[in-house]
Amino acid sequence: MPETKILKNVNLLKSAGIVALCLYPFADAFPTVKEKPNILMILVDDHGYGDLSINGGIDINTPHLDNLFQKGVQFTNFYSNCTVCSPTRASLLTGRYPDLVGVPGVIRTHETNSWGYFKEDVPTLPEMLKKAGYQTALIGKWHLGLESPNIPNERGFDFFHGFLGDMMDDYRTHLRHGENYMRLNQKEINPEGHATDIFSDWAIDYFQEVKQKDVPFFLYLAYNAPHFPIQPPDEWLERVNKREPGLSDLRAKNVAFVEHMDHAIGRVLAALESSGLAENTLVIFSSDNGGSLPHGASNGPLREGKQDMYEGGIKVPTCFVWPGKIKSKTQNNNLGLTMDLFPTFCEIAGVNINHEIDGISLAPGILGKKQITGDRTVFFMRREGGGYGGLCYYAVRKENYKLLQNTPFEPMQLFDIVADPFEKQPLDENSERFKELKYELSQHIRKSGAVPWQKE
């Protein structure tokens, strides 16, 4: 069966609310191991949609990321799978909705405030890519478990150099609740320096190492920045204050923090180029959720930010760059989610997926073929303690319409995202569209209710 027909059938099933068994049985069309592209996945933390010059940021300079976005295709409708960290990362690594793999909320150090447990039997992205001969590595933030079996080396990564936990209490001491979660594979380490610089240095070292091997690599480079605490190096803050004297202290720190991260990513991309690996490397940039407004981030004109189901909480800047394969200076208006990266990478690597997933491959669209991805129903969820009471809140989108709530205690609102992209005019709650989306969400909740999210 032709690839296009398979993808069309998968999309039809998904648009009908059915999760498809995703199979890409055309491995003969894929290149040999030596020719397969390297994959560099750069995921940043709490990056505001408006915190890129290329997205209209007027008080921020992000030349390296702007240049990256110009080299490939920019997705204008790409969404994180959740409003916070752990669930989105679970979706990236499994191609599934986070509550279906046991991660509806943030995994934390203390059990009484931890709202997920990563299912041990779910195939992960690095495990799949290893079937195609890839070396797999994670540098930076993990945030899907602090102990065996949910640590990177036991979930498919050949190499781990990074941070097991969630946020750092300080970017220079790298501790969380007084615990040291920095690791070289499973060995506790205590590196010196700002975490953003450290992770970048380790990525650069990895390129030098892997270029000696005659196999493709998958590097998941996950920065903690620009998640709070907002701690730019002093010289970067001084530079911003001098250039933008009218900024508040809160905003100036966030701008400096992002600009420092942009510089660090620029170093990584320059090293990829100088190592001779860039020509055959697919580079993806995205964020795990929207920017945190109380910490000085900007989501541009989008409504609200991190923790909210409004666009500012889940719409994230995303691009795909692959020299000679993806046309530069292009935009893609298709709907994309973090969970779509799993099947996208598998298709590009020539890996068959013969188990249930929720994402769909975006490969046809990014490679210039006609593809429609916005005809499916997609769900967003987050479970949390504190003022949320351990309850879950949701959003669901189908075509132009989005039904959402921002806490478990408020009524749901329906918006036409195309006609009202800034979510200012809620639609009639008695409409058939409102009832339809609410019902579809109820069926997802029924399914997710069968998945445990606490360790027994």
Please provide a written account of the structure:
It is a single chain. The strands form 3 sheets. The chain has a 10-stranded mixed beta sheet. A 4-stranded antiparallel beta sheet has the order 13-14-15-16, covered by helices on one side. Strands 5-6 form a two-stranded antiparallel sheet. The protein is an alpha/beta fold and 456 residues long. A hairpin with a 2-residue loop joins strand 14 and strand 15 (401-404). The longest helix is centred in the middle third of the chain and has 26 residues, at 249-274. Mean pLDDT is 93; it is low at 1-30. Helix content is 27%, strand content 18%. It contains 11 helices and 16 strands. The chain folds into 2 domains: 30-374, Alkaline Phosphatase, subunit A, CATH 3.40.720.10; 380-448, Arylsulfatase, C-terminal domain (2-Layer Sandwich), CATH 3.30.1120. Helix 5 (195-210) runs parallel beside helix 7 and helix 6 (234-243) crosses helix 7 (249-274). The protein has helices at residues 3-15, 63-70, 85-94, 125-130, 195-210, 234-243, 249-274, 311-314, 341-349, 363-366, 432-448, and strands at 38-44, 73-79, 135-141, 159-163, 175-176, 179-180, 182-184, 187-188, 217-222, 281-287, 318-321, 330-337, 377-383, 392-398, 401-404, 413-416. The chain is globular.
